[in-house]
Amino acid sequence: EAKNNRMKKLVLTLVLLSTQIQAYTSNDHILNSTVQQAERGDLDAQVTLGNAYLFGELEQEVDYHKSAYWLKRAADQGDAASQYNLAIQYFRGFGIEKNLEQAFKYYKLAAEQGHPEAQIQLALRYLYGEGTAISLDNADYWYKQAESHADQDLMQYMDEFKQNAQQIKQQANS
């Protein structure tokens, strides 16, 4: 009976190990297939890979350089979320050289498509003159666009904008 129990444990261990190997192989296959699709210009595959490397999804390590590579391809095809995420990478210098003008460009592209986080970020860039000239009119415009569909996650940026816009306007009038 002890021999039977050991045999059952061994069989169970082999089944579990086999399942893990199949899952690993399956994930590897999915990733390779996604890369092939992305290389052929498939927007969804490019977004998937950009996000996988940006956020460590699909069992991938975070890799900002690879993320920027795939997000740029998706952003240049017009994907607003990719434009926004790429703008952050340019703004912070994650995986690519920090470039405020490129960050501004991609924030603006996403904002023009109605991306609320990009709209408030664009308002802040106009307010601070980061990647563009200071423009309080444009800052106000984009703030109002973001405000029209702001959620709780945007409130910290909305509050930052309000406080700093007031100070900058007072300084401009002094």
Question: Can you characterise this structure?
Answer:
- The protein has 174 residues and is an all-alpha fold.
- The chain is 77% helix and 0% strand.
- The chain has helices spanning 2-39, 43-55, 64-76, 80-92, 100-112, 116-128, 136-147, 155-173.
- It is elongated, with a radius of gyration of 23 Å.
- The protein starts with a helix and ends with a helix.
- The model has no long low-confidence stretch (mean pLDDT 86).
Q: Judging from the principal axes of the Cα atoms, what is the shape? A: elongated
Low-confidence stretches: none
Radius of gyration: 23 Å
Helicity, in percent? over 70%
End-to-end Cα distance, whole Å, is: 92 Å
- Helix tally? 8
- Provide the residue-averaged pLDDT: 86
What is the SS-derived class? mainly alpha
Strand content: under 5%
Largest sheet: none
User: How many beta-strand elements?
Assistant: 0
- The H/E string reads HHHHHHHH
